[in-house]
Amino acid sequence: MRSETFASRIGPVLTIVATIIVIWYAAAVWMNAPFQRDLDRRGDVTSTTMEFIAKTLSQPKPIVPAPHQVAQNVFENTFLRKVSSNRSLVYHSWVTLSSTLAGFAFGTLLGVLIAVGIVHVKALDRSLMPWIIASQTVPILAIAPMVVVVLAAINVTGLIPKALISTYLSFFPVAVGMVKGLRSPDIIQLDLMRTYNASRWQTFWKLRVPASMPFLFTSMKVAVAASLVGAIVAELPTGAAAGIGSKLLAGSYYSQTIDMWAALIAGSLLAVILVTIVGIGARLIDRRMGVRPA
Amino acid sequence: MTYLLRSWQGSIALLLCLLALVRLPLLATDASTPFAAAGTAGVLLLIAVGALACFMRISRAARALILFVTAHTAAWLLIGGMSGNEGNASLSYFLLIAASWLLGWRCISELAEIRPSSRQTMMALRLLIPAIFGAWVLILWEAITRGAGVPFILLPPPSAIWDRIVSSVPILAADVRQTVFKAVLFGYVVGCAAGFAVAILADRISFLRRGLLPIGNLMSALPIIGVAPIMVMWFGFDWQSKAAVVIVMTFFPMLVNTVAGLSASGSMERDLMRSYASGYWQTLVKLRLPAAMLFIFNALKINSTLALIGAIVAEFFGTPIVGMGFRISTEIGRMNVDMVWAEIAVAALIGSVFYGVVALVELATTFWHPSNRGG
Predict the structure, then answer these.
(1) Within 13 Å, how many C-alpha atoms sit on residue A100's CB side?
(2) Residues of A in contact with B232 (CB under 8 A)
(3) From the CB of residue B120, how many other CB atoms can be counted at a distance below 10 Å?
(4) DSSP per residue over B70-95, as a string?
């Protein structure tokens, strides 16, 4: 029974993925064909259809790289290169990851602090909350390059400027989620704490904080993904420096499409890993707190 | 019965006032146009009156009004006296700014405690409190950047940014036309419509739903913004490539939210529709889409921000010589920081208006929903 539900869940996903790959191949052939035809005409080469298709899928700088080219590039740059090498994806991912994690940590801390302030200080609730929401309608990602360049002008470089962008992007989901979480205890539970003569401090640690844990982890999943986006975009203006974002930019400058796609895949893998780790953390906390799986 | 109220903001403000009095003058001694004695006395007096008002047992509204007037007039005088003296402020100046800020804080606290009877006053208060908070962010920003002489390149004062906005309206308008009216709106409409259409399709074909939904959820966690350089390579430098990025970015939130929303109607209601012998489309249009409205509007709100970000970031990878992202990246290269901030202010305004319009449309179309009916 269980394996059957598993199969019925995984089957459609695999089918869709397979369809996407087939479409991808078709698109690669179709989009790369004009350039290849041009190349063949100039080189006076006549090839059969199969040969032609094979050639469209193995161009060095294709418009649409074929899946296997990207996979090969990712594999080579991940496993076959020295980790310290400038071309290693592991190296670039590590650079991005470090600023993502720093920004995520600060962002989570800031978000929790703001939430605690909002829940306990009425003036903050009324005055700050609208601005927190408004802060996210600002396309803040757009100023990421400016923050990096300006901070570089006063000799603050490296991790901190990128982490700042990540912080800005990741504090919001945590703050909003935690405000909801810290307010999630029912009146009846708060009343119980009052009958125990619990202080504000005790109510906070023994009731509000445990109640907010599921909210915290849900918003942390969003926050870690946002943090990664922030780190990648913040790397765009740093030019030659390392990181997935700069790899994307370099790829776009030199039309190295395969490298670009590989960087994109690396970023996606990073996102999946980060979100999964937060998810596992959530499950561990749930278990420690005695939540039964639904 | 005590005749005085307790207020730590008031006490500290008084204390700061005394300290400032000891450490006069407000500006460094070699400042070109020092504060007039009357101005300094006026500021000190205003703050003292405001601080004392914190302790008075008068009506809350009166206290808030006194605080509002004194705190803001004092701040106005302090900032006004700064012109021509940038970077010459002494400790006493900052003490007074801090004191008037505390009064502003007290004002917000008082306003937050007011329980008005009429709905209009309630609404006005809900707008006024955040507005005062925002004003204080600007006041502190202006006072600190100009008072301490923060390098212009690091953080220009708001007044300089405003001057820049006013003096370069044509450039800003051209950028907005290129980025917002061409790329963002087109991409937003197409992306949301496509996401919605695919969601309906996925709802009709359960196989597609089971396959697409996990992928859609996965995609919403990925840094999709990274496709920007690829899109620029495919669709060229003009607005079409930016619209393509916006489409890709807005598609998945719409898809995931609509699919979730379509399952939001209860089984009882669906059974009722069945007992009316209504078909799939009738159930969809009359029951399930209205029930999904909140989810769909949620996606529209998320997308309004994403669309603007997508278009601006995509412009970093190559554009014609107009557009908000282009302007930001080139003016930064020329270290015209005030122009960048002007562009950001415009982007912020547009983002908020965009969001606000979606929120208003939501209120107008889902007024019947329990979460919007209020008490």
Answers:
(1) 30
(2) 252
(3) 8
(4) HHHHHHHHHHHTTTT-TT-B-HHHHH
Domain spans in chain A, listed from the N-terminal domain onward: 2-64, 89-288
CA–CA distance from B100 to each of B9, B14, B35 (Å)? 10, 10, 18
Q: What is the CATH number of domain A89-288?
A: 1.10.3720.10
* Model ipTM value: 0.76
- Give the Cα separation of B315 and B131 in Å (integer): 33
From chain A, pick out residues whose CB is under 8 angstroms from the CB of B208.
Answer: 12, 16
* A131 to B229: CB separation less than 8 angstroms, yes or no: no
pTM: 0.79
| pLDDT band for position B29 (cuts 50, 70, 90) | low
Using the beta-carbon criterion (under 8 Å), do B325 and A16 form an inter-chain contact? no
A244 contacts chain B (CB < 8 A): yes
What pLDDT score was predicted for residue A123? 76
Contacts of B126 in chain A (CB under 8 A): 126
B40-43: long-range contacts, CB 8 A cutoff, minimum separation 24: B42/B77, B43/B74, B43/B77, B43/B78, B43/B96
Compute the distance between CA of residue A149 and CA of residue B328 in angstroms, rounded to an integer.
11
Note which residues in 110-139 of chain A have CB less than 8 A from chain B: 122-123, 125-131, 134, 136-139
